[in-house]
TrEMBL record:
GO terms for cellular component: cytoplasm. This is Glucose-6-phosphate 1-epimerase. One of its GO terms (molecular function) is glucose-6-phosphate 1-epimerase activity. PANTHER family: APOSPORY-ASSOCIATED PROTEIN C-RELATED, GLUCOSE-6-PHOSPHATE 1-EPIMERASE.
Length: 107
């Protein structure tokens, strides 16, 4: 794993994360959050995360829904709703069918 901090604009509402090492596939579903962030804290920021072990940052990757390009500004009394849901599904990699489109259709 390497240090990474990337923002992807206008991403689909479903994103598949294929973990070949652990043979798992995660599906991120999101609403109201058009962008996505792929990030890990690496050594310095990891020290601020109290429940992350000293060396665990080397194995950590966060993929999250985000709203970066057009920030949401609320006036007093205004409401906004957004959601993200992360679930694990059987890995398409394990079954020998590495087809991200197939994984997205599963959800
Ligand atoms: O902490 P959040 O809002 O879930 O975002 C995750 C990370 O996303 C990264 O892009 C930022 O550089 C970090 O500062 C931030 O912590």
């Amino acid at each position: 794993m390497l240090k990474v901090d990337k923002v992807y604009l206008k991403t689909p509402t479903k994103i598949a994360i294929l973990d070949h090492e652990r043979k798992r596939t995660y599906v991120l579903r999101k609403d109201g959050l058009p962008d996505a962030v792929v990030w890990n804290p690496w050594d310095k920021r990891a020290k601020e995360i109290v429940d992350l072990g000293d060396e665990e940052y080397k194995h950590m990757l966060m993929v999250g829904a985000a709203c970066v390009e057009k920030p949401i500004t609320l006036k007093p009394g205004e409401e906004w709703k957004g959601r993200q849901e992360l679930s694990a599904v059987p890995s398409s990699y394990c079954s020998g069918q590495l087809d991200p489109q197939k994984v997205l259709r599963l959800g």
